[in-house]
Protein: Protein cereblon
Amino acid sequence: MEVESVQDPSDLAEDPQSGGDTDQDWPCWQARSSAGLGLGKQAEIPEPGCEIVACVLLFRKILLMPSEAMPIRISSEFSRELTNGLEDSSLVTITEQIRFPRLVGHLECGHSRGADSALIGRVGTLARLESVVSCAPSRHASRDSNEGDIDDVDDGSHGWADVTIFGAARFKIVALEPTSGLFHAIARIRVLPDEGSGSLTRIPFTATSIPDFVRQAFDPVSLCARIVASGSRLLRPFGKEDLAENFVLPRTRMETEKFSFWLARNLPLDMRTVRALLELNSTEHRLLEILKFVTGVEETLSCAFCNAALATTANVISMSEVGAAGSYMNAFGCTHQLLTLDKVPDARSRGAPVLEHTYFPGYAWTCIYCYQCEFHIGWKYEAVDTSCIPREFFGLLRSVLTTNLPGRHWL
Structure:
């Protein structure tokens, strides 16, 4: 296989950037915050039910879940203001001081903008700013409109900052400040609780007429075990067939809540379904809906633009420590969310494999397109290191996938 080391400049908008290690221990659902790398003390998260004023970054077709890390690129000036809590911001003037610096909201907003009243009532993820790395000023203030990224940026004259955010809690927008921008909103948000999450205490049979199997049907710990047993083919990392036996299951209220969000982002669900799972206020409800999916029949993963069948859920594999799905940022600062699969039979590739800026070390990438509408749907990865297994796999953009099964509607 001939690998190019320098890419065509016309392909920069679709160029991946290096990702994480592909040889990590499993399970990986127990993701932890990096404790504010480079930003000192970790940001405090308000208690559920609290209302605060926060800056909410708006994205299209990019969804952050609690306990998930995501790289984004914003202007250096804006990153400084977020780090300082927007206390003396030149971008916005707000009626009360933001009391929780280094917290930012992430909202998948569709086509809405910062001052759009349609944002009120929407549910997003409150995130910590984990690390900020300043970049040199760039004359490119570019994004690929096909991939739906919306970053709050200026014209690049002040430089850029690569920021890692880590989802910490869910929130709902209560009200908007009039000074919201085009790609961000200054909003009053309410931190949402996850109601009822936790293991149900087993009551002695002599004290109740409710059979134990009824309790187990709604117990989150039992639901987690059933999901892993039923959906091991969708959750296992590549080359590990014994996931159901060795998987470390959650045992506490917080662990079942975190696990439900990990499942939501790593199962082959379309964007609409993942968004609906994020909006659910109950861990039990979220796990029950996920159980319906993993115990169902095999589903087709189709192109969201022309409905052409691309693969099936049986093709999903995990190629990194974060699971089958991950967020990555390319050289232009565009954030992509990928789902990894072992086969996409009819995808069309263009160009020679390129090793530079690969998301997966040891693999060269090639852009792939839908065989029917020729829309860019992701990348094919081919091993250039003899120690890499598998020899090839595919990373599909989650934003261009939909799950189709006639007569069946999740949630």
User: Anything to note?
Assistant: Helices lie at 76-83, 212-218, 220-230, 232-235, 243-246, 253-266, 271-279, 283-294. Residues 303-404 form a domain with the Metal Binding Protein, Guanine Nucleotide Exchange Factor; Chain A fold (CATH 2.170.150.20). The first strand starts at residue 51 and ends at 59.
